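#struct-help
A.M.: can someone run this one for me? Single chain, 131 residues.
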Amino acid sequence: MLQASKSEATSPAVELAQMMFDAPGPCPYLVIRYAKFSGHLDLSFRKVGCQLIIVDCVLEEEPTFEGADKAGLELHRCRASRLELDWAHVRSDLRLVDVTVPLAGGGEPSVRVTATGTLVNGRVEPDRFLS
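D.P.: on it. Structure tokens below:
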């Protein structure tokens, strides 16, 4: 397991993506806790061999996993403006727990979770989307 430490500073989202691809040897899990990421986390059409677990984090811009081939994806108590999973292949569980979605004007959610054509080979657990 590769785990990032608690940080007060904002890190570029590209650093999170780079951690997934620079893991020393096989990495079953990448756990990120208490981080705030700026910029666009774009894993579109990338193969990610480790399960990505993001806990108590803020993603200032939407993460995109469109067409990605992922071992697994979990977001726990995170805040993001949008989550795009269209045509992704998640080879294990997809868990979205206590994900905060801010509201746009008029009370409409500004966050969309899109998953058109997504294939999940494990459980799908969308639990408690908050605003």
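A.M.: thanks! The chain has one domain: 2-127.
D.P.: also worth noting: Residues 2-127 form one domain.
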